[in-house]
Amino acid sequence: MKLILYSKPGCHLCEGLQEKLEQIHSLAFDLEVRDITTREDWFAAYQYEIPVLYLDDRALPRPSPRSSISQLESMLQNYMSAND
């Protein structure tokens, strides 16, 4: 499965979410981080919404910045199971 994180440099919420995602090793996914400042269409779509997380082609609800790694892992597991 592929996770896409729409982010931008200097976004502390984005950086925190990325760090947590990179610490999840029990789930099989490829993480792609997309800098919204590199494309006008991404910037227009997500400038007020980041961080935005997609699983394959489906937008996921934004996890709370207070979510622990295990909570984030559990949320992702639920969405990944729903895609099977």
From TrEMBL:
Origin superkingdom: Bacteria
Alphabetized Pfam families for the sequence: Glrx-like (PF05768)
InterPro entries: Glutaredoxin-like, Glutaredoxin-like_YDR286C, Thioredoxin-like_sf
Coiled coil: none
Family annotation (SUPFAM superfamilies): Thioredoxin-like
Protein name: Glutaredoxin
